[in-house]
Amino acid sequence: MQTERYSSFLVSLVVTFIISTPLFSQFNTYSPYTRFGLGDMAKQGVAQNQAMGGTGLALHENNRINYLNPASFSALDSTSVYFDFGANSFHNQYQTENYSNTWWNMNLHHVAFASSMGKYMGFSTGIVPYSSIGYNIKQEYNDYTHGMAMDTYYKGEGGIMNFYAGTSVKLLDRISLGVTMNYLLGKLTRERAVDFPMNSGYSDVNSTENLNLRKPVFTLGLQYKEVFGDKFFFSVGGIYDFKASTDISNEYLVENAFYPDDPSWINDSVEIDPVYILGEDTVLNTLNIPQKVGVGIAIGIPNKLIITGDYYMQDWSGSMSGENYSTTNATSMHFGAEYTPDGEALRGYYKLMTYRLGGYYYNSYLMVNEHQLEDYGITFGVGLPIKTLKTSINLAFTLGTRGTTEYNLVKENYGIITFNVTLHDLWFRKRRFD
């Protein structure tokens, strides 16, 4: 019976991965800023992390999958197995000086699995988002003096997923070391078109740019945790992403239609009348993903209170550039707290619930119109235990702002609801009766 139970669990896990994989090819996002670079970098972590401002580098807990730092995998109990899946929903409002619009969508966010590998080791694997693009923009140019009009259309879709696998080992009961291989895989498609509504004799031009990325990136993680009885704990953590360089499969095709002749295809930028050059949004032969450094600290009361903060730095300067944008040094700060009134309460479900809040401030890797984009917000959420504190339903809410209406930019006000289910089971435990 026990063997059949384990086999059934494994089959369910494999089937879920297979079914969910095609869903990750559907990147439903919308932001004019995703036109540049690798698009919108995903907010990392499951709902427990996101409700705490995206923190997790110093969290060494045994009731969640914390893939932000691979050193955390050794925190899992020696007989514990976790399966986690989640989704999120976005609501965005876009503002310029003279225009506003709203948009919403829903995505499958992640699928992850983690298990102990003995008393001092842990393992985790999963599929999580890395970046995505999605936009549909029309720009109108009107020359009333000469009776000239030109419309330019920009459209993009696609994204990059992170297929990760990592392991961790605990040393001296306080220090944990971990390593993760992150395999980045995805395709970004950008399209541009120009037509002349008042001059039907002018040529129309369409361009399609496909960027295909396949590259492993390795992460090292370290955590140190000191626990003083049931009264207090202190932990620090850090990660280091190694620099990665890869040749990009960057397909670029321009279609120039000369009426009434058939379309002709030209594999270069095309100059059309009136003078307008339709070139690549992102000119890349080699993509350099820079090294990333993150450090975090956490203090609190075991099984009751956590207060934590993280800091990241990743210098994208010179990695990518294009029309009206370039990449630059990105930094971010994250803060969060988690509180469980009484994890052993026999009455009062609210005492078993976990309450979370946080905030973040992010200097983006993008410089648009010579202005570095800023992204900041507040977060809050709740964990709803099912039977035990280790099996739970978690909700996270994010309210944030990116960009500004100055510098000819767009201001985005957004809300994100992240939902995930953390399933916990016990393996390798011998039963006297079956």
Give structural notes.
The protein has three helices and 23 strands. It is mostly beta strands and 434 residues long. The strands form three sheets. Strands 2-3-4-5-6-7-8-15-16-19-20-21-22-23 form a 14-stranded antiparallel beta barrel. A two-stranded antiparallel sheet has the order 9-14. A hairpin with a 4-residue loop joins strand 2 and strand 3.
Descriptors:
434 residues; mainly beta; Porin; 14-stranded antiparallel β-barrel; two-stranded antiparallel ribbon; 23 strands; 6% helix; disordered N terminus; disordered C terminus
Topology:
Elements: H1 2-20, E1 40-41, H2 47-50, E2 80-95, E3 100-116, E4 121-143, E5 148-171, E6 175-195, E7 204-228, E8 232-241, E9 244-247, E10 249-257, E11 264-266, E12 270-272, E13 276-278, E14 286-289, E15 292-301, E16 305-315, E17 321-322, E18 325-327, E19 329-339, H3 349-352, E20 354-368, E21 371-386, E22 388-403, E23 411-426
The side-by-side strand order for the widest beta sheet comes to: 2-3-4-5-6-7-8-15-16-19-20-21-22-23
* Mean pLDDT reading: 82
Number of helices: 3
Number of domains: 1
Structural class by helix and strand composition:
mainly beta
Task: Give the proportion of residues in helices.
Answer: under 10%
